[in-house]
Write a structure and sequence with these properties.
The two termini are 13 Å apart. The chain is of the alpha/beta class and 231 residues long. Helix 3 links the parallel strand 3 and strand 4. 42% of the residues lie in helices and 13% in strands. Strands 2-1-3-4-5-6 form a six-stranded parallel beta sheet, sandwiched between helices. It has two domains: 157 residues, 3-Layer(aba) Sandwich (Rossmann fold), CATH 3.40.50; 59 residues, no CATH class.
């Protein structure tokens, strides 16, 4: 058995640095590569091409869309699924417009990393001046670079709520109580739509749960995986 971790938008393997050691009890930790493709389904196919024969699957934010696609494409290989701070909702009209603007402007604009304001919005309000935390998130984007930023910014996130019934493995949905990017109701509707899914809300954290509250995330994930990994 292995555990496959799928990061979010402009996040690299270091997103999981504080979580991975606690998950290693379930087998080798494998990191998904979301740098290269232009659709959720293609990202899932690329991950599956190099993934172990069977695995536990954890997807964060944008990675939750990819994780659900993986579970649909290879249901026999995913033993259990954890969806963290994510949603089934598609892009809003405003977001599609912003993506179009990025696509038109990107070739002529040098990438200097995610803005401090954008990163602060992803954190609990009390962390808005936490420079170490903000820089840790910004550093992931800087390492990934401009081409990945443009590719991921243009990625279409389709509404897949109606396909939730295709997910047949045990599923845990984890939401952050103070998430400013994904509302609690999005997690609630996702958990209600996936057969047999469990919803857990972690209090006193923003969107970046693996970095902001890794210990509490492990407190939720580890016992749940221990109970469901062999289901």
């Amino acid at each position: 058995m292995a555990i496959l971790l799928v990061p979010g938008f402009m996040a690299d393997d270091t997103l999981w640095d504080d979580v991975a050691p606690g998950l290693a009890r379930f087998g080798p930790v494998v990191h998904a590569d979301l740098r290269h493709d232009t659709s959720v389904e293609a990202l899932a196919q690329r991950v599956l091409a190099t993934a172990p024969p069977s695995f536990l699957l954890v997807g964060f934010s944008m990675g939750g869309y990819v994780a659900r696609a993986i579970a649909r494409q290879a249901p026999g290989r995913v033993r259990a699924l954890v969806l963290v701070a994510t949603s089934t909702r598609g892009d809003t009209a405003a977001l599609r417009q912003r993506k179009g603007a990025i696509g038109r402007a990107a070739p002529s604009i040098a990438f200097s990393g995610l803005s401090r304001t954008a990163v602060a919005t992803s954190l609990h309000p009390r962390e808005s001046d936490n420079e170490a935390l903000i820089e840790r998130v910004r550093a992931m984007g800087t390492r990934l670079g401009g081409e990945v930023f443009r590719r991921q910014s243009m990625l279409d996130r389709p509404d897949d709520l109606a396909r939730s019934g295709e997910i047949r493995c045990p599923t845990l949905v984890v939401a952050a109580a103070q998430d400013q990017l994904r509302r609690l109701e999005e997690a609630q509707e996702m958990a209600a739509a996936i057969p047999g899914a469990t919803l857990t809300v972690i209090e006193d954290t923003g969107h970046m749960i693996p970095i902001e509250a890794p210990g509490r995330l492990l407190d939720v994930i580890v016992p749940w995986l221990a109970a469901h990994a062999d289901s």
